[in-house]
Each structure stands twice: as structure tokens, then as C-alpha cells.
Amino acid sequence: MALQTTYLDDMPVAYAGMVANTELADIISRTVEDAALPFGKAVTQGTGDKSVHPTTTGDASTLGVSVLSNATENSTVNGYPQGDTAAILIKGVIWVTADGAVAAGDDVTVTVATGAYGTKAAGAGVLAVPNARWETSAADGALAQLRLK
Which InterPro entries match (predicted)? Predict the structure, then answer.
């Protein structure tokens, strides 16, 4: 049996998909329809009732953000497997990995091919996320708080 011999000096501030605070949030449960769903990524309504899939090319809107969970029966540590029940934040504040530099108060967009949130100009392959704002600023690839209203 392997023993852990090294430890971090400081715990990470957060992880992608982690609810950011204790204010009221709306989190719904949906079945992951057709592909593994990473934590902290955009999700879209699936074709079945109460189902979702990772936002991908061709999607015209998003439903919310996948919430980090320890309760999932997954073979990976970073998402929900196909067929699992996923927690989806539709209102509240959540940590996500910024796709490009973001600033507090900026409008939010999502790149449909990756499900990643940023502030890119809406257009082909990039959707504006209505009623969303950045709560905190971050560099490209860093964690930031995203507010969905």
C-alpha cells in the first residue's frame, strides 16, 4: 500500500464547479444524456425529458453550470458520467475556469464547442449568457466566480 509522503502547504481556494458561497441558489437535477459532463462547464437541455448534455457545437442556448459533486458514481474525478444524475446550477454563484481574461462586472459568454465561460464577443460558436455577470476577475485559465441570475 502506498503512503502519502508529501502534502500541500495551502488548500486550493476552490475547484471548477464548486458553489462559491452560501447565498440562496437554484440547483436542479438532470440525467446526463449522451456524453460525460465535466464539472464547472455549460450544459444544455437534452432531447429527453429532464436530461442534459455538455454544451457543444450547434447548441443555441445553455441551461446552467454543472456543479461539483462527491456523490457521483464516476470513473473519473472531474465530472459526471453518461447516465448519472447531475446537479445543475441555474441561479447563484459558482467557480468556473475562465476562457480568456475576465473582469468583475463583465458580461458572460460561453464557447459552445468547449462549454467554457469567458467574455468573447458573441457570434459564430460563442453564445451570450443572459442574466450572467462575472463576480471576480481572473486571468485566462484561472478560476473566477460566475453569477447566474
Answer: Struct_cement_gp24/gp6
